[in-house]
What we know:
The structure is a homodimer of 229-residue chains.
Chain A: H1 2-14, H2 16-29, E1 38-39, H3 41-48, H4 52-64, E2 68-71, E3 75-78, H5 83-107, H6 110-129, H7 132-149, H8 153-165, H9 167-175, H10 179-195, H11 199-220
Antiparallel strand pairs in A: 1-3, 2-3
Helix pairs in contact in A: 1-2, 2-4, 3-4, 5-7, 5-8, 5-10, 5-11, 6-7, 6-10, 7-9, 7-10, 10-11
Chain A binds a DNA duplex (30 and 30 nucleotides) through residues 15-17, 40-42, 50-54, 56, 72-76.
Amino acid sequence: MGKYNAKNEASDKFSLRGKVFHKIRDDILSGKYKDNEELKEVAIGEELGVSRTPVREAFRQLELEGLINIIPNKGAYVTGITVKDVKDIYMIRSLLEGLCAKWATENITPEQLEEMEENVYLAEFHATKGHTQQIAELDNRFHEILYEACNSKMLEKQLRDFHDYVLRVRKKTLSENNRGTASNKEHKYILEAIKSGDPLKAEAEANKHVMSAFENMVKNGLYEAYSTE
Amino acid sequence: MGKYNAKNEASDKFSLRGKVFHKIRDDILSGKYKDNEELKEVAIGEELGVSRTPVREAFRQLELEGLINIIPNKGAYVTGITVKDVKDIYMIRSLLEGLCAKWATENITPEQLEEMEENVYLAEFHATKGHTQQIAELDNRFHEILYEACNSKMLEKQLRDFHDYVLRVRKKTLSENNRGTASNKEHKYILEAIKSGDPLKAEAEANKHVMSAFENMVKNGLYEAYSTE
DNA sequence: CCACGTATAATTGTATACAATTATACGTGG
DNA sequence: CCACGTATAATTGTATACAATTATACGTGG
């Protein structure tokens, strides 16, 4: 599974289509394009120094992700991500991360468990030192391990997609307001529930973790700066 | 929202790319291609009488849906959908349909509520008559209404994708074993919870509905015939 | 006979050409 | 002046050409 994904990422990095896809995706999520703005194949192709072919292929992917809306023979229009979208994603993620933690309790391998323990331990250190970059990376990795450990291709894919979607928001939230310390404490609770073999406890802790991340975001009003609404 | 989607469907129907996408997707989901089978652009293009361009664009979409795995410069390989995948999707759907019903309770419009009542009433009639085709259509539509009524673009998209994914399995299940009658009764419970303005009741009923659909499927061993495992 | 390397074929990646469709400009009649 | 229709430009849709990469065939030396 990990290898499978690594390959896909390689594909994305080394082909023009993948580069174009990620570039436009980032630009939409970061708010470079306005809502309903029209994306033109030639213009974007020229900007990135490629022909229309890779741009078109990237458009098809973006359409499927729901980031743009393609009207046949007419054009591609940015759908963007609104404040409500981010909120909804956190609600959905809360449920699904819970399910993921529950399943992970029953399917995690010793290696994954060990990496998770190491992750939490190391994050504790960086949190006290205020190393925001490392904290963000460890946080991402904690969730990645959880996704892999649940042993469900379907759930893993869903959570990964959502995770990517709100990545920018999450990173910012973590770097402010001591959220990093609190977040890592919650990771520890999840880890302990998994270690003690209590799936329902793990589910509840993961639920709470996502919800508290969301509440922290709302409290700080941080997410408004990153939406197109 | 409804219109937005209608447009997308039109796009899919009238462009070659859309036709190719749906054809390959159906072929994978119905088991025409084996797991790990390689899909070649030229071969599929010739089969469908189109050039490589629409085929390639369809491939990119299928990759994003997780149905094929594209290795750069090498080829596209069918990932397929396994028994476990179907099971996992039902578990995920159970949670998300619950959330959807909860939100729908708070956001449903009078028009949607009326259509839902009509839907349940009509399905009752067709269930007693054993009209499997109509039952399947009304069942689909019931869930569509629910998805629209929750007023969340994100959740709606998720549920629609999953719904499509297991459509074939669902249709078959409904036509056997009087599941249609039982299913419609559960729809009625959801509807009544929504009408009485009880979001938690609606959530619980929707949870149960998906789980009982899944249990029915397992009991009859029906889903094994529709997977690639 | 087989291991290996090289030539050849097959396949994917990207750019471009042409067709079809849609948007825009512009002129004319009233 | 403006409503309308037609010509023109811009844009997307699809096919095809060429380049780059990978798979296969085949021959030769030992």
